[in-house]
Amino acid sequence: MITKxxxxxxxxxxxxxxxxLSLFAxxxxxxxRLLAFEKKSENTEDQxxxxxxxxxxSGTQFGSSEAGTAYGKLFGKVREDGLxxxxxxxxxxxxxxxxxxxxxxxxxxxxxxxxxxxxxGPNQMSLKDPSGVTFTRPLEKAPLSLPEPDSEEGKAAxxxxxxxxxxxxxxxxxxxxxxxxxxxxxxxxxxxxxxxxDKVPSDPEMAVNIAEREIQVQLKKDGAAWKVVRSIFASPLxxxxxxxxxxxxxxxxxxxxxxxx
Length: 261
Description:
Strand content: 35-45%
Low-confidence stretches: 4-29
Shape: elongated
Strand order of the largest sheet: 1-2-3-4-5-6-7-10
């Protein structure tokens, strides 16, 4: 026989179980985090772009100093203590290599650890004592966001993109095949287009562009409004080739690959 107290306990257990399922669903459905960090001095420059998806870490790293320039990919995991344990596969002046790294992610900054390294293969360096490192190289967080298309920020930036694409192609296009990235007063829309109602541009070359190539639209804020700086389709090889000057070059983090996102 089910008593009133038993029934109440069963309801409480179901509520607890439901809350647990809800929290699990929220955690498993959590979007990957995109983060950018940078540091500049007179003779050095460091940039790190991270994609953190659960306990997986990927991204890119760039470093420039009097000793040379290194650029490459990062991959690794978030440890149980919260530290990022990654491998940096880099290239310096045509010479490949790798180095094991520990990073501490904090509010507004990313701090890299320094410690004694030992070689575990040709140009493959590992931390000799990971527990004995010191975190001494802070990089400050750089602005970066991916606004949803239907958000206020997304709508404000996509409106001039829509107008620029229509003028460039001669047809109304669906922008849902691309992503919008924002960093401060700069934004980039990049992706593949599709003509609405299957309309085809009168220019055969433009028809090929829409069918086969990505478009990149760069924007900069003029006061409170977004203005298009340039719109360009990728070359057959997939690169975006255009002339730039220092005052019309968007921040580096807007160009980082989102392939793993």
